[in-house]
């Protein structure tokens, strides 16, 4: 059920076990490449990761328009008919995305995601790439 580079299994399983209703967890790089996943299939996780790259870019552009903001996206929450989508910054050039059903309480989910990012943020770092190569 878990596909990853590195040892992310315990990190993602802890979140999945601690919050009811999680359908999929994806760890991704800023350029939309899947680093790890829990739940769902690899193709879906890849599509989610790619979509997240655009979403985090859009959120950062909006953040720049808020007076006093540093212009960086911290978290995006989208309520969808039947569930929720969460995207959180998780370290330099890395993000944590979660898809959940409607029973998941958003405040609890965001708190658990924040806890996870604090505990293992250094492990969720993706080095910058240039022309598909790690810099």
TrEMBL record:
Gene3D superfamilies: Dynein light chain 2a, cytoplasmic. SUPFAM superfamilies: Roadblock/LC7 domain. It comes from the Bacteria. InterPro entries: Mycobact_SerProt_Inhib_Rv3364c (IPR053141), Roadblock/LAMTOR2_dom (IPR004942). Signal peptide: none annotated. This is Uncharacterized protein. It comes from Streptomyces lincolnensis.
């Amino acid at each position: 059920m878990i596909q990853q580079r590195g040892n992310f299994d315990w990190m993602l399983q802890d979140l999945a076990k601690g919050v009811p209703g999680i359908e999929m967890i994806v760890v991704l790089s800023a350029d939309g490449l899947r680093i790890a996943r829990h739940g769902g299939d690899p193709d879906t996780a890849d599509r989610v990761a790619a979509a997240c790259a655009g979403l985090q870019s859009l959120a950062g552009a909006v953040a720049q328009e808020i007076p006093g903001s540093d212009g960086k996206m911290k978290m995006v929450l989208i309520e969808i008919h039947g569930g929720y989508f969460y995207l959180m910054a998780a370290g330099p050039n890395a993000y944590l995305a979660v898809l959940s059903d409607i029973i998941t309480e958003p405040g609890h989910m965001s708190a658990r995601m924040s806890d996870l990012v604090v505990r293992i943020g250094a492990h969720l770092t993706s080095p910058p790439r240039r022309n598909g190569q790690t810099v």
